[in-house]
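Practice problem 4.
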C-alpha cells in the first residue's frame, strides 16, 4: 500500500469518486454493517414463495443472508443524485438497465482499477441485489454518513433527500468510516411521503420491536408493508408504455416505477 496515512488515502478515494461521477461517497465498516438493522432483521422476515425461489436459483443463500467477499473490511458506498426533472434515470427500457444505474456502474468500474493501481488495495464491485451477492445499501449508506433511514423506508440525505441511487464495492484494508452522522429530518415532519403512497403501504404497523427483538424496524416504526409496495410495482409493470430511445429502431416497452413517497419528501429540494 502507498505510504500515505489511511485517512489521507480515504480522503483521496472519496474525492476521486466525486470527480468521476459520484454525487456522494462514504466508507462503512463491514464489521459494523453486520450488526446494522437490515442485516439483523431481514433473515427473520416472512418471505414469499417467489422470493424463496429467487434465492435458491442464485448463491444458495438463506433469505436475507449476505455473502461477503473474503477479506472485505470496508465498504465504499457511492450515491448518484436522481433529480425529479430527470425521471428517465430510473426507467427500464425493455430489458436495458436504467441509465442512472449504468452511470453508477461506470463510476464503480473506473474507481476500482484506480484504487488498485494507486494504492495496491484489492476491490470488489458488489452486485445490486442481495441474493446475487450484494448488500443492504441503505444501511451501508447510513453507516457511511450519507444520511438516515426515513419514514418512507428510504435513505434520506441532507443534500438530495431520498432522491439518490446507490452502488458499493468492498476494499480489503481498514480505512476510517465516515459515519454515521447526526441527521434526522423526519422527527416531527408531516409525513408527506406516507400520505403520498398510492397503495397506503405505510398505513399499518406490520412489524413490532417485541416480535423482532430490535427497535429499528422498516419505515422506522414498523409501518412499511413490502407486499403493499409490491402491489404498486406490479401495477407499474402492467402499465407498460412505449418509449423511443436515441438510436433505437423501434419503441421499447418502458417501466416507470412509482416514486411518490420519494418525490413528496421536502428534504434536499432546491426549489
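Answer key:
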Amino acid at each position: 500500500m502507498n505510504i500515505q496515512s489511511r485517512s489521507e488515502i480515504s480522503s483521496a478515494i472519496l474525492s476521486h469518486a466525486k470527480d468521476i461521477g459520484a454525487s456522494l461517497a462514504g466508507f462503512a465498516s463491514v464489521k459494523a454493517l453486520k450488526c446494522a438493522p437490515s442485516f439483523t432483521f431481514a433473515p427473520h422476515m416472512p418471505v414469499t414463495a417467489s422470493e424463496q425461489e429467487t434465492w435458491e436459483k442464485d448463491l444458495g443463500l438463506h433469505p436475507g443472508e449476505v455473502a461477503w467477499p473474503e477479506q472485505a473490511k470496508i465498504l465504499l458506498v457511492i450515491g448518484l443524485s436522481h433529480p425529479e426533472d430527470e425521471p428517465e434515470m430510473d426507467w427500464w427500457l425493455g430489458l436495458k438497465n436504467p441509465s442512472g444505474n449504468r452511470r453508477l456502474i461506470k463510476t464503480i468500474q473506473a474507481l476500482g482499477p484506480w484504487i488498485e493501481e494507486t494504492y495496491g488495495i484489492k476491490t470488489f464491485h458488489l452486485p445490486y441485489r442481495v441474493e446475487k451477492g450484494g448488500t443492504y445499501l441503505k444501511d451501508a449508506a447510513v453507516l457511511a454518513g450519507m444520511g438516515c433511514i426515513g419514514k418512507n423506508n428510504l435513505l434520506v440525505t441532507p443534500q438530495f433527500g431520498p432522491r439518490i441511487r446507490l452502488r458499493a464495492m468492498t476494499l480489503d484494508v481498514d480505512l476510517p468510516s465516515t459515519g454515521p452522522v447526526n441527521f434526522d429530518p423526519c422527527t416531527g415532519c408531516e409525513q408527506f411521503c406516507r400520505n403520498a403512497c398510492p397503495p397506503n403501504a405505510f398505513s399499518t404497523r406490520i412489524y413490532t420491536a417485541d416480535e423482532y427483538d430490535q427497535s429499528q424496524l422498516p419505515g422506522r416504526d414498523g409501518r412499511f408493508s413490502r407486499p403493499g409496495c409490491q402491489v404498486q410495482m406490479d401495477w407499474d409493470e402492467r402499465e407498460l408504455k412505449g418509449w423511443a430511445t436515441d438510436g433505437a429502431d423501434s419503441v421499447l416497452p418502458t417501466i416507470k416505477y412509482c416514486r411518490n413517497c420519494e418525490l413528496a419528501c421536502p428534504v434536499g429540494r432546491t426549489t
